[in-house]
Amino acid sequence: MLKIGITMNLKEERNITVTKEYVDSLVRTCKEVVPILLPVITEKEVLLKMCNLLDGLLLTGGGDIDPKYYKEEPQLELGEINPLRDEMELFLILEMYRQKKPILGICRGCQVLNVAFGGNLFQDITNLTTLQHKQLAPRNYAFHSIKILRDTLLYKIFCKESIRVNSFHHQAINNISPLFKAAARTSDGIIEAIEGTFDFFVVGVQWHPECMQEDENAKRLFSFFLRECLNVKSRL
Ligand code: MN
Predict the structure, then answer these.
(1) Nearest Cα to Cα of residue 31 among 209, 234, 223
(2) Helices 20-29 and 216-235: crossing angle, nearest 10°?
(3) Phi, psi for residue 185 in degrees, rounded to 5
(4) Contact 179, 197 (CB under 8 A)
(5) What is the Cα 56 distance to its own chain's centre?
(6) Predicted pLDDT at 235
(7) For residue 20, is pLDDT > 90?
(8) How far is the CA of 171 from the centre of ligand 1 (A)?
(9) How confident is the model at residue 220, as a pLDDT?
């Protein structure tokens, strides 16, 4: 049994939701997985117990992180923020890291990983690039290409120098955390994936592999993540 926590959204301050694709991606990848939806709470003693219970953490997509966490004031282009979700996810990330348990961050999840470890973000990339990062196309459509950097875990996972991915973001990583390295970029230089430089799996991707369940690369990413969770679990 592999207990994988999935972070959720808080909407209108009372509805806790998650997109079904995250759950399906995990369950379809490995029959051992028990997906555990993590409601938005901030009680530290409960969050600590969540981390003790879990074998791995999936950080899902969502709104923007409060820029106060990277020492900036909000700019005009900043989107919706959710203070409780920020607080919860930042705590979960640092505790899972302390316990050396695998983390996969998707879209916002990639960004919050970077912020949790001292990196910062572009609050809006619209005026920084002429490449489109908010596709008007089906969610599973591989929209722009990304270059996978050599000597990265991602290169080992995909065995390719370039792949095509979907894109639904208006923010991106600016300064990368000293504990991470860039693993993929678009042609405009925007960071599309990061990975931890430590000895267990912590990876963030800027795209949405959970919406591309027929995509070979998406399958490889989820398989690798869950294999890492199994390996860590068997060591503990
Ligand atoms: Mn993109």
Answers:
(1) 223
(2) 70
(3) -140, 155
(4) yes
(5) 12
(6) 83
(7) yes
(8) 9
(9) 98
**Annotation marks residue 30 as catalytic:** no
pLDDT at position 236 is 73
Catalytic residue among 21, 133, 208, 211: 208
End-to-end CA distance of the chain: 14
The predicted pLDDT at position 217 comes to 98
- What is the DSSP track for the chain? -EEEEEE-EEETTTEEE--HHHHHHHHHH-TTEEEEEE-----HHHHHHHHHH-SEEEE---SBPPGGGGT-PPPTT---B-HHHHHHHHHHHHHHHHTT--EEEETHHHHHHHHHTT--EES--TTT-SS--B--S-TT---EEEEEPSSSHHHHHH--SEEEE--B-S-EESSPPTTEEEEEE-TT--EEEEEESSSS-EEEESS-GGG-TT-HHHHHHHHHHHHHHHHHHHH-
Known catalytic membership, residue 72: no
Please report how many Cα atoms fall inside a 13 Å half-sphere around the Cα of residue 59, on the Cβ side. Answer: 32
pLDDT value at position 130? 96
103 bridge partner residues: 57, 202
The pLDDT score that the predictor gives to residue 13 is 87
What would the pLDDT profile of 112-150 be if each residue is shown by its tens digit? 999 999 999 999 999 999 999 999 999 999 999 999 999
Tell me which of 189 and 12 has the higher pLDDT: 189
* Strand 9-11 versus strand 15-17 pairing type: antiparallel
Q: Is pTM, for the whole model, over 0.90?
A: yes
Q: Cα(144) to centroid of ligand 1, in Å?
A: 7
Q: Verify whether residue 51 is a known catalytic residue.
A: no
